Amino acid sequence: MSVLPSFLDLGTTTPCAGQHAVFFPPVVAKEGDEERRAREARALALCRRCPVAADCLAWAVASDCGSGVWGGSTEEQRAAARPRSRRARTA
């Protein structure tokens, strides 16, 4: 994964702090669709309260961060928003 953006440094207090399991799919266990939707809904609710959500989303898009919820967007939402030529290269 890319280096974390500066707005998420250790001095920043954001709703996502300490909530890694809510924002990213499990590495070991398989996550079902219902579990994924519930996890993403919890993450998106935290993003709605976040003062740096716009910066977070901009960073995720600029760095092509494919995994997890960033800036109030899911992996699928960011993939759908990519220009068609970039989607074809990453597929």
From TrEMBL:
4Fe-4S Wbl-type domain: residues covered: 15-80
Recorded superkingdom: Bacteria
Molecular function GO terms recorded: 4 iron, 4 sulfur cluster binding; DNA binding; metal ion binding; protein-disulfide reductase [NAD(P)H] activity
Region described as Disordered: spans on this chain: 68-91
Residue stretches of biased makeup (Basic residues): 81-91
Cofactor: [4Fe-4S] cluster
UniProt entry keywords in alphabetical sequence: 4Fe-4S, Disulfide bond, DNA-binding, Iron, Iron-sulfur, Metal-binding, Transcription, Transcription regulation
Entry's Gene Ontology cellular component terms: cytoplasm
GO BP annotations, alphabetical order: cell redox homeostasis; negative regulation of DNA-templated transcription
Subcellular location as annotated: Cytoplasm
UniProt-listed InterPro entries: 4FE4S_WBL, Whib
UniProt-listed PANTHER family: TRANSCRIPTIONAL REGULATOR WHID-RELATED
Family: Belongs to the WhiB family.
UniProt protein name: Transcription factor WhiB
Originating species: Motilibacter rhizosphaerae
